Structures are given as structure tokens and as C-alpha cells.
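Worked Example 4.2. Consider the chain below.
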Amino acid sequence: MATSPADLTLEHVVPVSVLKKSNSPCATADARNIFLSCKYVNNARGNARFDFGPAPSGSIGLGHGNFIDANREIFYPRAEDAPLIARTLLRMRSLCDFEWRAVTTATAEEAE
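Applying the procedure from the previous section yields the following C-alpha cells:
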């Protein structure tokens, strides 16, 4: 499935709503938290938490190797994006005080 430039958008890895709840001054302006994404995948993900394991049966394929478990609001990124997303979550965690379980199913110890 090819993606044209018109199909792309900017995505916050740690959702703005999560950062705003933290009352952290770095909340929405950190460029390290923003990535280019397919609009469809970004919209389908919404504020779902990340899980870096295999998507369970019944998950919805979003294309490009991404899946979502809509019932549990968990997003499974494609394998090649997982390391960058995990590093971004850890970097943002070091800069901003936000609820870790609001963004991932992994414990902080597992992520590190």
C-alpha cells in the first residue's frame, strides 16, 4: 500500500492529552515527540496505548504492519517503528512527568 504525501500527518507519540494532564512545561512543544505518520493509522490509533509484542488474534490490521486492539485500546506498531517509539517514550518520560501506563502496556523497567 503506497502512501502519498497527502496521506501523511504529524503524530505525537505521547498524546498531547496525556502531557497536558502532567502539567509539564515541555508538554506539547517537544519536536522529539512528533513523527510523520499515515493519517489513517494516526486517526485509528488515537490515544491508544502502545504494546510492542505481537498483536493478538482479533486485532484490526491498519496496513503497513500496524494493528490495533480496539476493545482494549492498544496499538501494536510495526516492528521497524517499535525501537524509535520506545526510545521516544523513554526520552519524553525523562523530560516530562506523565503517567507511564497511559502510553504503554510495558512497565518502565521492561522499557529500559
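The helical segments are 16-22, 39-45, 82-95, 108-111. The longest strand covers residues 8-12. Compare this with Example 4.1 before moving on.
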